User: Fold these one by one.
Assistant:
Number 1:
Amino acid sequence: MLKRLLLALAMIAVLATPAGLASAEPVCEVRDPQTGACRVYAADPGTPGGGGGGGGGASTFTGCVNERMSPQPPPPPGAENSLGNTWVQSVCYVAGIESSRGPAIWMFQLDVAPDPRVLAQEAISELIMRAPTIRTAPPQGSAGTVVGLPIWMWVERSSETAGPISATASAGAVSVTATARVIEVLWDLGDGSTRVCGLGTPYPPQGSDRPSPDCGYSYQMASTNHVPGAGPWPLSATATWEITWAGGGMSGAEALELTSNGSILIRELYVLNGD
Amino acid sequence: MTRPVRRSPPGLLLLCLFVLSGCSSDPDDLASSETAPLLAPAASNAVDGALPTEALSQTSPEEQAAAVAAVAAYDGSWALDVQARRDPGAKPNWQLDYRQYFTDPALSVALGQVYGMRDAGLASPTGEPSRDPRVVAVDLDRQSVEIVDCVDFRTWPEIFVATGEQNSIPEPPFVIQARVIYDPAAGRWLVTEQTPHPDQPC
């Protein structure tokens, strides 16, 4: 009899436990992330303003960084004039994928660990990338050439028009280096044709009777017959820059396209009648 | 954030100073007590940060100093947390206090909890947790000390201030793992990671 009474009391005690109802060992669903203590009610404040998006390219970063919240929620009451403070969140990643986002914290800016993605954008902004300098043989502006003869196309090999170039941005102990180079050039020949090339091979100074080994074209129509005013075919060369960055445990890649325009005069080939 | 226990990379000067005795922590590299504990579990109770000298006989003076300083910082972090959680609204801004003992990511988590408790009307006005911290590894190259603690929160209840209703649910003590690093810029040891393991009673 006494045993039954004790058993009943024990069951009541278990059922009265806030975290568990049916099990003698209830699973705690809310914990203090710092101490691990089990709670009925989580004390985590909301995350005002939401958070920034992910992105930033492929990454295998695993760890946590403090990220500035964007947009910034208003300062807490009484802290409107506290210079240097900002709302941040501790954002944790597992293999580059955001795994958790901590509460909003009003924090002195110097405590903000730099976000490698922000540094990457700073480094990329330091890179001087210019549209390609178009070169052709025969050259633009010359008397041009005639239908059926090979044209050589290439772009100038300077660091600013072809790369590779690199720049580094640092904040605290974190450095991110961005490197950029042209990986392909898309030529629009103006007559409806396009060619995808690399930088192309410069026409040799001593001349050549061969077509370009990697980036050439032979017009089949004379610009003088198809372009109003008997003008040249419009040319364009679009360089695709591959921009990669790495540092701070993260990495990423971006692409940028820059286009230059030109023209080349193609005349009809007249065959003299020998009669 | 939960993190796996860091393995000791080969070739590093990573010294296991002592291991858990009685706590069932990570069975792989924390609780493998084949060797006798080198340090007594009295780090947090040491007077003036001193550790029992006989327990330190197999460690270098530099490792001893690092362990003592790291445990002092870790103890300081708990003392501050107990003070702050007693009345989270006592200060509008706790960051200067917490920056004395924490650095990110632990700093953000700790501050977030104090502010969260303040906003939610929670506090732990009485008591303090019962703890038993032990240094398990010192990495002088990285200026990093790993601590495994056995914490009992039953002596440190969290309540809703307005009603007195208890928000914490009593549980048996469990393992908390912490990493304390030396910040040359700050010139002191700071808790950088604090990972509770509620699934590891001790």
Note: Residues 1-57 of chain B have pLDDT under 50 and may be disordered.
Number 2:
Amino acid sequence: MRLAVCFGLAFLLTWTGSASAQPAPIKIGLIYSYTGGSLNGGRIVDAAIETYMRQHGDTIAGRKVVIIKRDDTGLAPDVARRIAQELIVQEHVDLLIGTVLTPNASAVAGVSTAAKKPFFVMNSATSGIIAKHPYTARFGFTTPQITAPLAHWAYKNGMRTAYAVYQDYGPGIDAAAQFQKTFVGDGGKMLGEARIPVTNVDFSAYIQRIKDVKPDTVFVFLNNNGGAVPFLRGCEQAGVQKAGIKIVATGDLVDENYLPAIGDAALGLITAFHYSAIHPSPANKRFTADFNKVAGGQFVVDFGAVQAYDVMDAAYKVLTAQNGNIDPDKTMELVKGMKLDSPRGPMIIDPQTRDPIENVYLRRTEKRGGMLVNVEFETIPMVKDPNES
Amino acid sequence: MIANFLNIAFSGIAYGVLLFLMAAGLSVTQGLMNFLNLTHAVFAMAGGYFAVTLMNDLGWPFFATLPVATLGAALLGMLFERTLFRRFYGADRHLDQIMLTIGLTFMAVAATTYIWGPNPLPVRLPSYLTGLVHIGFLDLDEYRLFLIAVGIVLITLLILGFERTSFGAKIRAAVDNRRVTASCGINVDRLFMFAFLIGSGLAGLGGALSVNLLSVDPNFAVAFLAYMLIVVVLGGQNGSIKGALGAALLLGVADVVGKYYVPQTGAFIIYTVTVLVLFWRPNGIFAKS
């Protein structure tokens, strides 16, 4: 019986091999979250990839580029690990890309190391997760990378006391720790902190706490699926801003796709981030225009989109350089020190840490032409993750 | 100190009222029909979406949307009950019920995304509902005051209706013993339908009232389900309105007060409260022993 199965398989393999007259396609395995609250982010990433492939064609060295998409279902490292294995063993992908959440990225990076399969991380923003995985590189950002400049800005602009509210998981803890370190290092004083559960729905307790503590500034980390709408509208209705408490945050809080729902409660917010949808550059104009054609008004570009776009750019660069093939070691040599002319601005992949070195922008949320946008007012050029230098 | 506590307890009570409205129907239908309905949060979400759509697209005033949202969710609930749920009644079919209703919830999330898009909807309420009222040393949020007022009226009506009307008496009888109730000539099937109608309508109203405090997005039905189930479990799963009310208020106040005073512990508070209460009274706070 077992023999028969083996023969059958062998036959099937040779048959499929000879049936395709064209050269075998290049397979890129995409692992991202498409379930429940993550669906939106997944669809934005799909649209960004589609945008890139429409601009740059879907063949490299005469071979068709195929994206094989898998849903890791959200915070589920075991699922991410399993589908990474399946993509390598069953689908024979040449390259892995994707992941939103840090635990999933760590799981996939482990598989990448074991299988020597290059893995380009799109989002997962916790420091230090890729250091021990030699075939993994990150094209998004790390939360400390953008939080440190934000804390400097707050101190420089006269804020002396701060309170931190952040989501109780990797990037949130990272972000708050970095804010505290930088802010206290500059001479500021932390008045306390609140850890918000990732699944939180009612924010009144945290808002009341902020009002009662009366800090000069409150640092907020809520990822772009983490309740920015009820939190900011609650702050507005409780009069947090009116009480003279300045809200500063990482850019996740004012993701362009959520701004219409947040409404005027977002006005005047100061955020630090690596990308704003209205970043004034020709590369970004072209990217947003083409993205809007693909998205058809369903959603707009945000940082998730630009990260997916840049990962595709990096994938196309390494594939083109190797004539459509992927040699793991050569690929990583190409990635280290790679320069990308991203819609977000210039970026380089750090040859030592394989993390992005990029501009961090301070932005103020304003209304322009009836639309809420994040206007960049200060650029801190080519920032490295402060923990990985 | 005391002012802080009163402010925060006030927020907790408002949150508890919201939880009660959304979960009361679930408690009644579960007590009445022993039907595990994980679709219930969908009716609350539908109420929220109906209200916001009427406000944003048709320019209706907020108050006018509330009855429509209630009615819309009630009819949706009845539709589900008549076409699907009634085929799965029976104490030995709990697994079928769970698979059916959680599947429906996921389908509802996908359908909502398809119709309204994946992003949260913008909500604009009249300005007289979104400010603060200063009473002595207290800063009370006008919207929460309004919510509590609505809650008091509804709870009074529900308790009176449940305890003083013949419809309420029939429901209580059916909860206690369905077969004997039916043998008295009461149409239990119709009773179920009306209970479902009322329960879904309450959830819809709760959803519509929550639009100012929570995010109206397709994930709503999933995000709130766990809280609703905790309310039902703590309330005693016996269709008691007072049980659900007590559980919802306890949960709302414990959640908000806990987060305020021990913010480091995050979400643990309500789960700790749930576990402790269940140790103390395994069948819920207001269960008949």
Note: Chain A touches chain B at residues 36-37, 39-40, 43, 165, 168, 192-197, 199-202, 204-206, 208-209, 211-212, 225, 227, 229-230, 233-234, 237-239, 257-258, 260-263, 298-299 (CB under 8 Å).
